[in-house]
Amino acid sequence: MTPATTVHSPHRLYGRNGELVLLDRMLSRLRQGRGSTLVLTAPPGLGRSALARHAVEGRREGAVLHTRAAPAEATLACSGLHALLCSAIGPLPPEADDATRAGTAPTALLGLLRALGARGPLLVCVDDAHAWDRDSRVALGFAARRLAPGDRVAVLLTAGDEPGGRDAFTGLPRLRLGPLDDTAAGALLDHLTDGRTDPVVRDALRREAGGNPRLLTALTGRLTPDQLAGHAPLPHPLPGAEAVLDAYAARTRALPADTRLLLLIAAAAEEHEPEGAGADAALLLRAARPAGLDLGRLQPAERAGVLRGDGTRLHFAHPLLRTAVLRGAPLPSRRAAHRLLAAALDGPHPARARLVQLACATGGHDPALADALAGAAAAPGPHTDRATALERAAELTADDTLRGVRFAVAAEHAWLGGDPGRARALLTRVRTAPALGHAPYVRGLLALCDGPVADAHAFLLAAAALLADYDTARTTAALLAAAEAAWAMGDAPAYAAALARVPTTSAAKPAPGPPQPPGVPVPLTPRGVPGCPSGPSSAADAPPSRPASGPPLRRQGGGTITGGGARDGAESSPAAGAGAGPGGGGTLGLYVAGMRDVFGGRTADGHGLLRRCVEAGERGDDPDGLLRSAAAALVVGDVDTACPAGARALAAVRVHGPQVLLPQALEHLAYGELRAGRHARARVHAEEGLRAAGRLGRRNAAAHLHAVLALIASVEGDARACAEHADAAAAVAAAHGLAQAGGLAVWAVGRAGLAAGRCAEAAARLGPLVGPGPRRGHFAVRMLAVPCFVEAAVLAGRAAGAAVAVEEFRAWAASTADPLAPAQLARCRALLAPPEEAAARYEEALAHHDRAGGDFERGRTLLLYGQWLRRRRRTSRARGPLRDALVAFERCGARVWAERAQGELRAAGEAVAGDTGGGPLARLTPQQRRIAHHVAEGATNREVALRLSVSTRTVDHHLRNVFALLQVRSRTELARLLDRSGS
């Protein structure tokens, strides 16, 4: 099978729904006798011709004039108009001859189009109109501007986005096509390859194509089936881009030779800049002087729309135009441009940038330059720049093992810089296995961000074993990341086992086995908080197999492995924290020791160490230390301390980086704020974290953030948002084994059901989450969901199953510093208590709430207390707690919970603000209105009785009266009546 046979041609347009709708409306208006004009502009390959073809093929009736410009005829006057008129089917009016003469073409063409429109609706479609001869362009633009809707002529033109060639169409309605987004590009790629492309290959193809569908199709068509499936390495650079790049390069061929040389130097200068940053004009000037050039020679390129300047930076009109200039130049010319840039970067300029330019000018292997680049990569700076330096160093390295290590560590820096796609592409260039443990280490980090966490766990443990003899820093990082993977999948023994292997000393061991590669930097490799930053505390006296909540670990990075062993680098050493031990002041050492004690059943000792970790974190400004401090605060249940620590950590990440930490810093802060009852602030931070996770390709973090947003929505009462976020979290959780994210999503949906009065459904959802046995929920979620489960089970008439959960909750509440836990425990006991004890339990819970604060949980206790009092006909006494519950819910934005409190107040005989007394329900009592609403929603009489804490007989009695008063005969008629009235 040839490579081409594995790829299908695209039969439909991807990512162009908006443009297709616009064209279909244009054709629909034309069928109704109303004409219009549209110019579609785009760089080559973005699908403007495909859209024009769609319009022509979608024209079901009426005449069509359609042609595509022939660049070879661009010098022949009126050749474009001649080709357009030759596409007509049938005879043309006599004025058609004048429409192809330069002197009469504009007015004759206008008259001709009006005459044809008078016969019937006419579509005029010219593809690549910018490539027509000038006379044809001017005549067509003249006519299109003067056609009225009543002339029944629709004009659709496509043109390039360069200034030259489209001025004749100035003033016409214009739509510029943008590149495909990742979703559309992925859909096109799935169609081209039947969805059989390896994820790493998909990433590489999407990155190289940059949203250009023609380029993506060409690149895919040049790969073999083994390459597409990931069984064979990808060529570097990817083949197939020649035709598209040649179309971009065509814009530069008519420029003067000096201008083209300056463009080549500018393209070489921008090659290693961040996307969209452009080239430094001052650097370009210094590099051009030895060649006898000045920047004034760039004016022709600016006039042609190839380049633009903003004073200090020069920007190509399109990234592929820059790529076309570089790849289209002969190899000696490219190397000469890089040598000019390297010379211009001599002196006080950064050594790393100069060395990179020298590497680009060098062919073959150069061990000395490779070592110099690797050494420069160890210096502080942006991780993307350090990745570039190591990539170039690897390309110049002859030794296969060292070459593979340098590619792997370059991938690590790319990951830290927030570019996982580049990291995966770099890993594909590692030809040695296992590259001394570095490649599996980075693969584990990538899988932890966006992949099955069980795979990440296996990769990271394997990496730790390979790295243990010569790289203590990365060994520690790999084990901490493996612990995080175990945490995310809910495997407590695996979490404890990974922690037990974390080295307790920072001293680098000699390398008895594999040689230590020279010049490979050990970058900062922080670890994120797992999924949802976990629960607030551990269960008291919990056995190792049932530890309580708390986020896993982060580590600091640093050091550069040289030929003589590990030495401290510019960044803090991870082992400094790890080696501090219980007696040291490092947050990492205290955290590791504390979590070992907690998971070993020594809860009191572990909490003591974790409190010291909180204090140690408050004295520093390192993002890792601050995040560990906030995590430790959640483990011991001090949510009020976790929030400011999380805020400081977020600020530190934004200031110092690395970018890869941003989603987790936002997630950690959002979860702490959610636990502290600051729901609005939690939502803002979680939404920002979700955007950051999407931008950085961190689907696992996005799943946890979706779960946090689902929990927030279950408080605020947005049932639709809760379901959407929970579904998004559950989809990734199921595919990647994220037990914690999945458990949080279930908790959110169960709490939303409880808010809506669907108690039996909520109890059914939450039961497996908090119960014992193999289906039990994540150890960090179980205790947090118990209060919701107990409430749902009791209100649904299933109190028997809640007693065991309350006993477990009692043990957990005794060990946590969370001030809400005693109040929630007292509330659970009140729900299960006999009538003579329940009131005292509720009062006890309210006393705890008065000390703890938090409107939402206090409102829930007040609501249940008021409901309990009303059910026992203590109506006047019930109104006070219910009023307070309503106010508490309104203060924290819990809309649906506030509506429940309003309903209880009405049932207690008190008017509620906002009641209008109008509509078909005006004749009903408050209790009858509540029953009518529940029945209209589809609830059975038994379900209504459970929701309202009354007997089924009472519901039957009230429902008969509702039917009689509203003169309806069935539940269906009742639902229709309420729906029509909006009641």
Automatic annotation (TrEMBL):
KW S-adenosyl-L-methionine (keyword) present: no
Domain HTH luxR-type: 917-982
Highest taxon listed in the record's lineage: Bacteria
Pfam hit, one: GerE
SUPFAM superfamilies, alphabetized: C-terminal effector domain of the bipartite response regulators (SSF46894), P-loop containing nucleoside triphosphate hydrolases (SSF52540)
Tagged with keyword Transmembrane: no
Gly residues composition bias: residue spans: 556-567
Compositional bias of kind Low complexity: 525-543
InterPro entries from the UniProt entry: AAA_16, P-loop_NTPase, Sig_transdc_resp-reg_C-effctor, Tscrpt_reg_LuxR_C, WalR-like, WH-like_DNA-bd_sf
Chain spans, region Disordered: 505-582
Alphabetical UniProt keywords: DNA-binding
Biased composition (Pro residues): 511-524
Name this polypeptide is given: LuxR family transcriptional regulator
